[in-house]
Amino acid sequence: MAKQETPVHRARGLEGVVALDSSLSFIDGKKGELIYHGYDIFDLAAHTSFEEVAYLLWNGRLPDRRERDELMQHLQTERELPPMVTDLLRMTPEDANPMAALRTCVSALALFDAEADAHSPEANYRKAIRLTARIPTIIAAFDRLRKGLEPVRPLRRGSTAFDFLYMLGGEEPGSAAERTFDTCLVLHAEHGLNASTFAARVIGATLSDMYSAITGAIGALKGPLHGGANIEVMRMLLEIDRSGRDPVAYVQEKLARKERIMGFGHRVYKTLDPRAAILREMVEELSEERGQRKWYEYSVKIMETMEREKGLYPNVDFFSASVYHMLGLDSDLFTPIFAMSRVTGWTAHLLEQWRANRLIRPRAEYVGPRDLKVKPIDER
Known about the structure:
The protein has about 375 residues and is an all-alpha fold. It folds into 2 domains: about 25-175 and about 190-225 and about 330-355, Citrate Synthase, domain 1, CATH 1.10.580.10; about 230-325, CATH 1.10.230.10. The chain has 16 helices and 3 strands. It has helices spanning about 40-45, 50-60, 65-75, 85-90, 100-110, 120-145, 160-170, 175-190, 195-205, 210-220, 230-245, 245-255, 275-290, 295-310, 315-325, 335-355; strands spanning about 25-30, 35, 40. It has a 3-stranded antiparallel sheet with strand order 1-2-3. Helix 6 (about 120-145) packs antiparallel against helix 16 (about 335-355) and helix 8 (about 175-190) runs antiparallel to helix 15 (about 315-325). The longest helix has 26 residues, at about 120-145. The two termini are about 40 Å apart.
């Protein structure tokens, strides 16, 4: 008697499928809860820095003052790019997609890292630090070069948020801008087994190197269904502002045409994304501080309309768009900045994957034809 195969559970887009165990983050989509390694995101956003969160994700606990300062020093030391990577940026077309430029440069970094193919836990930890330190430098250098400006070398002091804003604008940022941007980095650092994180873990599970896995993650994030929604949100807000349209009428007309309003709904959250709740307060504070209250008012009207008309709530992309805009960041840098933060989560997942590695190899159900016979080529 032929042995019967065990029935295979199928889920479109792997929705609801548990592929692996992880201690890095927990999401309760019904409650609107996000936890990094046991700590609620509201607590982390209010009381920690991006560097402390990076340490938490990589080590499973928050650092003490000495450990935090030591990590800060390592990150500061590693911010400088290899000269040939800067040369590569100089050769990049001015109209290049920023995510394509970032993807290419991250891949190139492996060529100048003597530990690129070293696979000890210590070497991988050092590479996680290098990637986190150098991605902001790549983004800032790319943006300045495409505008005809020379890259600004990192100060190699201060926080990731501080030095990135300095390299981007050429001036040291104020404390409010630094703290606001730092909080944004905390909020985007980790979010479970999303598409880019899963891509990184699949690549890592083959025992490929960290640079290959992070390059693949950036490629996944480049897709508009994963990263990039906040770019579309900002385009919408700017269109409303330029046209003088009422945001409520604008949204209702788009919905009547069956058009999607970006920044709403989430594959996991069925209520308000907790990161969006934190960012909403930041938008209000920034709008008041900078005399640009219109961005907050537009956002609230759109949010209320979407909840009333569609029962949908904003996700992290909705409010991050106007925060970044008010910080003076170009819209097409929003997704690279997402990567600049999420690299901590990606690398943490790789470190976790390699502690007890198993090749990730799901199955596909074959739905094609059977019993076809090959005809001679002259009869086809």
